[in-house]
Amino acid sequence: MREKPKIPNIELGKKLGRGVEKHVYENANNPDKVVMVYDRGFGIKAFPEVPRARFYLMNILNLLYPKVFRHIDIATAQSENILEYFITDNIELGPIHKRILELNEKINENHRDELVRQEREKLTNAIRKNPQYKRFLEILEEVGMYVSSGGVDANITNFAQNQKGEMMYIDTIDPFGPEPIAGQIYLRFNDEVLKSRILQNLKGDEQSRALDYLKRIEQLLGEVNSRLAEKNKKYSD
How many domains does the chain fold into? Predict the structure, then answer.
């Protein structure tokens, strides 16, 4: 069993769920919030610029579509094997998604249980037919996100319906591609399309903040590619 990580100034409560890269805990200091703790990955996922870029991208999306994407309060990178963590709103899940989480845990314990897999598949197929899920895929196109291979993870388990039946994206989106191409990392979205959407949909302070966040993502991309160039030069010397 994974030992509960220690995070400065934050007390982690009960574990609410887990994914391939992360574990989600109650925030014992604030029950209205949850803490998403990511394991340190390899390659660019170990770079400190990555969580900061995620922070900015998720908050741009929250400004554009606050009913679909949660605001991220804190994003930080740790040293050693933890990685990064985010603090965001705690969503009271509806019964379908609570059941999916229960089934996911059972599958993690015994991946050969076909009855459990069949039940989960039945529930996730129902979500795929939900107009709110289809609307989410449209939103990704509106903001220039790439959903194909190497793009945004639109997996059903990254969504949840709250008690009101509203569907939200409950994961975070990496703004950078997973692997370098010709020695460089690229954005997982079309920044000109996203900028156009910001100018079209937001006004005043919200527009200024979103444009600033986008500029910072682009700056962080440059920093990541500088790191990669230095690393490649070191290995080639």
Answer: 1
Question: In DSSP terms, which residues pair with 118 in a beta bridge?
Answer: none
Residue 134, domain extent: 12-197
Q: Is residue 56 within 8 Å of 216, Cβ to Cβ?
A: yes
Helical pair 49-64 and 204-236, crossing angle rounded to 10 deg: 150
CA distance 188 to 190: 7
Q: How many other CB atoms sit within 10 Å of the CB of residue 120?
A: 20
Distance CA 5, CA 181 (A): 34
Side chain identity at residue 227, one-letter code: R
- The owner of tokens 């740790």 is 78
In which order are the strands placed within the sheet that holds 33-38? 12-18, 22-27, 33-38, 84-89, 72-77
Which pair of tokens denotes residue 223?
Answer: 């920093």
Give tens-digit pLDDT for 204-231: 999 999 999 999 999 999 998 998 888 7
For 120-142, write each residue's pLDDT tens digit: 889 888 888 888 888 888 888 89
- Pairwise CA distance, residues 148 & 150, whole Å: 6
Note whether residue 161 is domain-resident. yes
